[in-house]
Each structure stands twice: as structure tokens, then as C-alpha cells.
Amino acid sequence: PRRPLCGRGAMMASFSSSSAGAVAEQGLGLSWQDVSWHARVGPAERQVLHSLSGHSHPGQVTALMGPSGSGKTTLLDMLADKKTSPYKGTIHLNGRPRDRLFSRISSYVPQDDIMPAHMTVYEVVRFYMACKMEKPSGLSWASVRVYIEERLKLMGLYEVRDTKIGNETVRGISGGQRRRVSLACGLSSSAQLFFADEPTSGLSATDAESCIRYMRLLAKKFGLTFVVSIHQPRPEVAKLFDHLLLLTSNPGRVVYNGPMRDAAGACASVGYAVPDFVNPTDYMLDLVTPGMKTGHPEDFVKYYEEHSQAQVEALVASELENERQSALELVSEQLRHVSEDWGTLPPVRNSVYGVRFRRQLALVFQRQLLLSLRDPLGIGMEIGVALGQSIVIGVAYIDVSSKANFSQALFFFMMVMTVALVGMKVMPKLIDERLVVKKETSEALYSDWAYILSFSIINTIISLIGNGIFVVLVFWMSNAGWELLPEMMFWLTMLCLVMDSVYTLVAAIAKNSESAMMLALPFLTLFLLYNGFTLREDQLPHFMTWLMW
């Protein structure tokens, strides 16, 4: 039976305990054994990360620290299942090999907070939650909003819930708040394992401390597991970490793997006590950085191998023997608790995605439509450009039907060229969105096809609206003859669709907007030459006539 709806606060507290508490009772342990990675440089290979093992306990925040080139980000990507190149070693969750449902119970916070600039804080978190979890039949959207707002209060974001995310050109929230939005997204979807790459990078000292302090709060309150790569934290930030994995570089090797509170003592045991009034993390990093005058990394590596490595490997071995729930079992139990309290849910599928494809498509389509309406470069820009172009060309060719045939031919040529070129404006927008899509699909929020279909449908409709306005207004201003309008509208619409497809292809393979413009030039040259007007088929060599088609 469902729980009585005795008040929004109690209701959302029980929903929170249903979705998170089922897993938080035991927590998720992450273990890695003998992981290493080699980078290929030309024909040779260079070892970036030496074989290492470790374990991250639930309810703790683990810091991966080390100088540049130590492989801490590489290790984080391997643990988070974001490393696409092959590596050695095994990574286990709850004593079981990590499986394809790992993304259903984990969340990754990248160094750059990549989110749609025109979405509000609340909308971003709600979208993330909707993509990760089906809504129970007995839970209204009003109740879901209360649940999300409770999470935003916990992260100190309630006051900015209706503020846009923003970017360089759109006024929005601060950098520290954006980092906390990323954490709120994972929290709202009941993720139990968090990975954060340099979460304090680019933040002020106050925002950096606040960000890590919120991580610690979530770890202790909900029994979550955090693994964080960080370069050189201030003392107040370093004290917030429970566990430290310290690496040296060339190649990346472990020099310390234990509680953060014992790091200074371990440093003294090696023979390099931390002086008074000195930042311990700065001092330790100087000692383990190769090439520094004060660096003694080999002493620390030797001490770790002789005094700590065996204990770490024994802990990892015992964790691997202690098999607990798999990712599928964790998700099933989590949803079972939710459905018992708040109504029916679709059966749990052994899929990397939390919701079905048609639900993914609906969510992504709704968001794309909303962004098109809010973005100044969306529907408004398309209509504005169409009006401007139609006025310029229409005025230039007023009453063209009464002029010479050559002028009429130029009129039609200008219309064709305008339609062919106007689609280039889609490339910068698509390239900007590509970063967001890459991040969200890597988190298994939705499949690539959900975005491809949504973008294609909305972009096609917007393009056709602009194209229709342009053609009709030009014909009206130029008095070209309404009897020609249906045929011209058909061919110009076909050209609009073809060129949009070409520009979309170019934007998909280009690294940035500048390279996209360069890649588009050969395609434009082909259309300029082989269009039946600049060159006719009988003027071409026999082996080149196929280009006319």
C-alpha cells in the first residue's frame, strides 16, 4: 500500500529514503586491482600509469593527488569508465566486475561544467532526473518539483533555481554554483558513486572549499562514494577529504594510499617531516615531484612498497572476494522500494538507459524546442534573417518580370545562392551543442539517436519556415509571377534540405567553427560550378558529367 500523503515535506523525505536509502544502507565499494595505462607516442609506448591497486569506501571522499603527468585524471577516467583507449587491470563494484549498468548508479562531474546556457537550474536537474528514472504512477509532477527543490536546498542552490545556467554571452549563475548543479544532477537521479575531475579548478578559494564541503556532506548524509582528482588544494580543503591516493610522475606511481589525516605522519616516517606553518599538501607535492630541487619521489615510492603496498593489496583482495549486489540488483531494489511507496513503474530493463527510447526522444525533443524558442539564434534569428534577405533581394529585383532575360536569370541564380548559403548558420550552433550531447550521452542520459532525431526535426521545421518566408516575400516584392511560385518553392525547398544536411555533416566532423567553415568551402565550390547554370553538361569532360547529378 502507498504511504499517506501527509504533507509535502514528509512525502518527499520518504521518497528520498525509498530511492536512495535502499542502497545507502550498505553503500557501494569501488575497488581497482593492478590498473595501468600506456600512451602510444608514434611507434613506441610510454607508460603513464604504473600498476596500482586501491579501494574507495562508501561514505568517504577519496582524493587523487599528484603533480602534472602523474596520471590522476587518467586513473579517474578509468575508474569512471570514461577511458576509451585500452588499459590493463580490473575494476570492481561491490566485489563484482563492473558491468554495462555501471552508468545507472554513477555520476561523472567533468572539469568543465557543460550544460545548456539557456536552461534554468531547476530545468537542468529535472531533465537529468527524468532521463535517469521513470516517474512512479502515484507521484505527481508537483511532488517531483518539491523533491528537486529539496535537493537544491541541500546544495545551496534553491535561491537560484529559476536562474539560467549561462555562459560567456548569457548571464547566469557563478562557476561554483554550476559545479554544484552538476552534483545536484547526480544526486537527484539517486546516483551512489560520484567521480569529479578537478572540481575546484577555476573557482575562488571560497567556492572551492564550498564545493568539497558539499561533497563531504552528501557522502556522510547519504552514504555516497566520491572519487575526486585534485591538484593542489589549500589546507582547509585538504582536511575535508577522508582518503588520499598520492601519485608521483614519470611514470605515475603510488607514494601514499591511506587516510588523509595520516598523510603528514607518513611523510615524517619517510624522513621528511612537514614543517610548521606550511601547507602539508604543497610540501608533499614538492617532495614527490621529479625534477624539483626538494623532490625525493623514489624515497616515497620505496617506503610505500615496503610498508603499505601489501596492506592495500590485501584489502583489495578481500573486497574482491566479498561479492555483494550487482548494478542490476541495486537498480532493481532501488526501484522496488520506490514502486512500493509511490505506484507502479515499468519493469527494470538490463539497459544502460534509465528510461525507454520513446521517453528519451520526448524529453530531448521538448528540451530542443524550448532552447530554440529561448535562444536568440533560434527561431527568432531564422525569421529575422529571412525577412532581411527577402527585403535586400526583393528591392534589388523589383518588377524583374519586365526586365531582360539576363536579369531574370540572375534573379533566380541569386535566390538559389541565398538559399544554399543561409544554412551555414546552423554549424556554430550544432558544434556548441555537440559538447553538451557528448557529455550527456557518455552519462547514458539518452541515446545518440534521440538527439539526432530531435535536432533534425526541429531544425528542418525552422529552416522550412525561414525558407518559405524568404521565397514568398521575394516573389511578392519582385513581381516575378505567382504562377512560378509553386515550382520555385519546391526546388528551393529541396535545395534548402540538401544544404542543411551538408552543413550538418560538416559540423559533425569538424573540430570547431573555424574548421567547419573551411571544410564547407569545397562543397560550396562544387555547388557553384556544377549546378547547370555556371557550367552546362555539354561543356564538361565526359568523366566529369556525373557531378551534375
What layout of secondary structure does this protein have?
Elements: H1 8-24, E1 30-41, E2 44-56, E3 61-65, H2 72-79, E4 88-93, E5 96-97, E6 106-109, H3 121-132, H4 141-154, H5 175-188, E7 193-197, H6 205-222, E8 225-229, H7 235-238, E9 243-248, E10 253-259, H8 263-270, H9 280-288, H10 297-307, H11 309-321, H12 327-342, H13 357-374, H14 379-396, H15 405-422, H16 426-442, H17 448-478, H18 485-509, H19 513-529
Parallel strand pairs: 3-8, 3-9, 6-7, 7-8
Antiparallel strand pairs: 1-2, 1-4, 4-5, 9-10
Helix pairs in contact: 1-4, 1-12, 3-5, 4-5, 5-6, 13-17, 14-17, 15-18, 16-18, 17-18, 18-19
Walk me through the structure.
- With 549 residues, this protein is α/β, with parallel strands linked by helices.
- Helices cover 52% and strands 12% of the residues.
- It contains 19 helices and ten strands.
- It has helices at residues 8-24, 72-79, 121-132, 141-154, 175-188, 205-222, 235-238, 263-270, 280-288, 297-307, 309-321, 327-342, 357-374, 379-396, 405-422, 426-442, 448-478, 485-509, 513-529, and strands at 30-41, 44-56, 61-65, 88-93, 96-97, 106-109, 193-197, 225-229, 243-248, 253-259.
- It has a six-stranded mixed sheet with strand order 6-7-8-3-9-10, with helices on both faces. The chain has a four-stranded antiparallel sheet with strand order 2-1-4-5, with helices on both faces.
- Strand 4 and strand 5 form a beta hairpin.
